[in-house]
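To close the chapter, one final illustration. This time we ask the reader to focus less on the individual chains and more on the assembly as a whole: which components sit near each other, and how the overall shape emerges from the parts.
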Amino acid sequence: DSGVTQTPKHLITATGQRVTLRCSPRSGDLSVYWYQQSLDQGLQFLIHYYNGEERAKGNILERFSAQQFPDLHSELNLSSLELGDSALYFCASSVDRNGNTIYFGEGSWLTVV
Amino acid sequence: QQQVKQSPQSLIVQKGGISIINCAYENTAFDYFPWYQQFPGKGPALLIAIRPDVSEKKEGRFTISFNKSAKQFSLHIMDSQPGDSATYFCAASTFSGSARQLTFGSGTQLTVLP
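The assembled structure is written out below.
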């Protein structure tokens, strides 16, 4: 158990809908990262927050947004969902923004039908 | 330039054999090279990592070999066991902007036959 908690574990929703994925980092970790894992794209970095502030953006679509709250948990919001958004979404955390060692949660499986 | 290329995509090895997974990169700013292991239904977990100032790092049956001039690094799993069957990701890290960023390879699905 990495100490990173993600909910929900599985989610099925229809195209055009909006979902929110939640992440609680390891105790004491200030950085939260979101990754998307799909069969054809591998592990793609989406976004990084450090202590409530956005630090880096990767291949995140405009339909997606994230935030990190004062209690350091984070949410990834996915809207206007398309079939191609079906993937495993991972949250990871590290103690600081240098993030050499990041710890992944078990992921949230999103299926868009 | 941020890409990390990983091969092979899948690998089947007999129990007791050596598993070798290779990665290559272009960006010379990368300064930290971890390997992650992922079991089905789980998130990736850090397995072993190396910095470019050393050519080899060994932890138990797992060894990273690093060739800075060729911009290549590889994971060797000695005496491979069925319990090693998992997906392995190489990664490379650099400080970009105000934070460190990890770029992952595409993954190698390793199957160790009993």
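Chain A touches chain B through 25 residues (CB under 8 Å). The CA atoms of residues 14 and 27 of chain A lie 34 Å apart. With these observations in hand, you are ready for the problems at the end of the chapter.
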